[in-house]
Amino acid sequence: MNKPEFDQYAARYDRVLGEAIPEGLNEDSYFAEYKIALMAARLGDKKSARILDFGCGAGRSLPYLDQYFPDAELWGYDVSPASLQIAALRTPRAKLVADWNALAGTQFDAIVAANVFHHIPLDQRQHALTQCRDALADHGQMFLFEHNPLNPMTRWIFERCPFDADAEMLGLKTALALSRQAGFRSEQHGYTLFFPRPLAFLRGLEPWLKRLPLGAQYYVQMSK
Ligand SMILES: C[S@@+](CC[C@H](N)C(=O)[O-])C[C@H]1O[C@@H](n2cnc3c(N)ncnc32)[C@H](O)[C@@H]1O
Question: Fewer Cβ neighbours under 10 Å: the N or C end of the chain?
Answer without folding.
Answer: N
